[in-house]
Design brief:
The chain is mainly α. The chain has a domain of about 100 residues: Serine Threonine Protein Phosphatase 5, Tetratricopeptide repeat (Alpha Horseshoe). The chain is elongated.
């Protein structure tokens, strides 16, 4: 009996999502409320005087009480109504603020501060159209008034109208070059437009005006990193390390270290981020990636598990945890993680492919075939799925189906040596010796030193009565792999020394 070299057993591809999530600081896009100036006559009025004092102390409830009394005492005083509207605005009572500020403007239509604050009250009500209208009116009344430009830019930024946002923030910083928040938001809008150079310039100015601002440095570092200027980004974040308790600083620092493959330093940064914010699923996930790169598997698994616990919707955390469970021989736990990933993202290819691997490792070939067959229907040009199905059918001796899958695989990867070899073995099972020999020769044309194909071609020749050709192939197999036992036994039987 001829001994056959076992078909090549390629490890099936395990796909893992190893992408770090961005952790950019949120833009500082706060609306500016304007404190109106009081006339000398108003200062003499006790309610306005008391209201102003309360307003300046942040006692908006007290201010509202006093301004309401002033407005009642002087119903035609636009200033009293404007102050009342501003206090209501700061107290978050937007509907009432709109009413008071509208009254003020009815009494005096040329109050740019009241127009600005009315815009802010409408924005508080999420009525962007009206907010924009009143900010624009404030600008018309006073073209060199920076505040409504800033607020208008903030609304456009929230509406993702980045072109108009850039225009308004540019006007704001031109009119008020000391406004660090406006420069920061100009950077945000420019970055969203894809204009990294302009964003970097704006963020740098913001940082120069407010060197202690963590969020400004984070934004600058983030856009520098995205622009491939990691050294400069690292410089910005290094200034924050050890002085800030903002986890985003350490998270971004870790991302840059990870990009540079400085995994130990990245892990230290992510550990610090986790220590500062134990509810940060992203920090735990990135910590898991670093720990895995460093071979610290227990820490990696723990971090991925914590990330998935904090954010059950994190497909990447479930997939990476599942992959580690599978590597550790816990196929059942891996199935659970991959299945959870698919609940969140039913079309996730990595989750489905790895779920098939986990089922196969559990010995549930039927489930593995079910999962991979569904993938093959969705992605008929994916070679890995056909490879997985072919190998599984082959192990189950379901040669008809295995042959179809290997044929599909070879259309996609015509130079796949192992696929040609295994297809040759299947052809032999069907008694198709000439076709089997063709497949073995195809494998050897790609890799002349692939010992299993030499041995298997020798088996075919022997079955066809071609003794000399068989001996030559067995010798070629041993020359390529002296330890191939099947080839040695076959040669010893045909040509004993």
């Amino acid at each position: 009996m001829c001994s056959r070299a076992l078909p090549g057993r390629r490890f099936l591809r395990r796909i893992q999502l190893l992408c770090c999530a961005q952790a950019a600081a949120l833009p500082s896009a706060l609306l500016v409320f304007v404190i109106l100036a009081l006339t000398a006559a108003c200062l003499a009025s006790d309610p306005l005087d008391l209201g102003t004092a309360a307003f300046n102390k942040g006692d908006f409830a007290g201010a509202i009480e006093q301004f309401a009394a002033a407005a009642k005492e002087h119903p035609k005083d636009a200033n009293a109504q404007a102050w009342l509207g501003s206090a209501l605005l700061r107290a978050g009572r937007y509907d009432e603020a709109v009413a008071s500020l509208a009254k003020a403007l009815a009494l005096d239509p040329k109050m740019p501060e009241a127009e600005n604050n009315l815009g802010s009250a409408y924005w508080g009500l999420k009525q962007s159209k009206e907010a924009i209208e009143h900010y624009k009116q404030a600008i018309l009344l006073q073209p060199h008034y920076a505040v409504p430009h800033y607020n208008l830019g903030t609304v456009y930024l929230a509406l993702e109208d980045f072109d108009h946002a850039v225009g308004e923030f540019s006007a704001a910083v031109e009119l008020d070059p000391s406004n660090a928040d406006a420069f920061n938001n100009l950077g945000v809008a420019s970055e969203r437009r894809g204009h990294s150079a302009e964003a970097i310039a704006a963020y740098r100015t913001a940082v120069g005006l407010k060197p202690d601002s963590t969020s400004f440095r984070l934004n600058l570092a983030t856009v520098l990193r995205a622009a491939g200027r990691s050294d400069e980004a690292l410089e910005q974040l290094s200034r924050l390390a050890g002085t800030t308790k903002d986890p985003a600083a350490y998270l971004n620092l870790g991302l840059i270290r990870y990009d540079r493959r400085e995994y130990a330093l990245a892990r230290a940064a992510f550990r610090q981020a986790v220590a500062l914010d134990k509810s940060n699923a992203t920090a735990y996930y990135d910590l898991g990636l670093c720990a895995k790169q460093l071979g610290a598997r227990p820490e990696a698994k723990e971090a991925f598990a914590k990330s998935a616990e904090l954010n059950p919707g994190s497909v990447s955390a479930h997939i990476n945890l599942g992959a580690m469970e599978l590597d550790d021989g816990s196929a059942e736990a891996a199935v659970k993680e991959f299945a959870q990933a698919l609940k969140v993202a039913p079309d996730s290819y990595p989750a489905a492919f790895n779920l098939g691997l986990a089922y196969a490792k559990l010995g549930s070939e039927a489930d593995a075939i079910r999962v991979w067959s569904a993938l093959a229907q969705k992605s008929p040009d994916d070679a890995a799925v056909h490879e997985a199905l072919a190998a599984t059918y082959f192990r189950l001796h379901r040669y008809d189906e295995a042959k179809l899958e290997y044929a599909a695989l070879l259309k996609l990867r015509p130079k796949d040596v192992i696929a040609h070899n295994n297809l040759g073995i299947i052809c032999e099972e069907f008694g198709q010796f000439d076709q089997a020999a063709t497949e073995y020769r195809a494998a050897l044309a790609i890799d002349p030193k692939y010992a299993p194909a030499h041995n298997n071609l020798g088996v075919v020749y022997e079955r066809q009565g071609k003794r000399d050709e068989a001996i030559a192939e067995y010798r070629a197999a041993l020359a390529a792999d002296p330890g191939l036992g099947d080839a040695k036994r076959n040669l010893d039987r045909l040509a004993p020394e």
